[in-house]
Design brief:
The chain is 64% helix and 3% strand. The chain has 138 residues and is mainly alpha-helical. The chain has a two-stranded antiparallel ribbon with strand order 1-2.
Length: 138
């Protein structure tokens, strides 16, 4: 496998998301699937079963893309990064109190982490593994 930043990031974050999703299921066995609140993962991030599934899906997408190739990894890092940017923005609007729209149990710590994931994924997707066009001889 090449040392592509997009592929390396996809593998690292893919494993992190998979681990977080699986660990979350140990905590949410008695939590509503789309509950607005839930137990805290690492005493910081509220989780519910739907959020755990989303973490696992994100992890699988990033990991598989990284294993397939640079181009697909770059594209999916960008798409997942954009999705987490949107999730962070929506989270700011719905994470206060017991908002019924907060179906993934977002809280302030989740919002910060979602923005951090978004920035890292988007920066690497947009800035790394770029092919430069050949320069025509003048």
């Amino acid at each position: 496998m090449s040392k592509s930043p997009n592929r390396m990031l996809g593998i690292i974050l893919g494993v992190v998301f998979l681990a977080a999703g699986m660990l979350g299921f140990f905590l949410t066995s008695d939590t509503a699937f789309v509950g607005t609140t839930g137990p805290r993962l690492l005493d910081l991030f509220e989780v519910n079963p739907l959020q755990n599934l989303l973490h696992i899906a994100s992890g699988v997408v990033l990991l598989l893309a990284a294993l397939v190739g640079i181009r697909i990894s770059r594209v999916l890092n960008g798409l997942v990064g954009a999705a987490y940017l949107l999730l962070g923005a929506v989270g700011i609007l719905i994470s206060g109190g017991n908002n019924p729209l907060n179906i993934v149990a977002l809280d302030g710590a989740d919002n910060v982490l979602n923005f951090a994931f978004a920035v890292v994924l988007l920066v690497v997707a947009l800035g790394a593994d770029r092919t430069s066009p050949s320069v025509a001889a003048a």
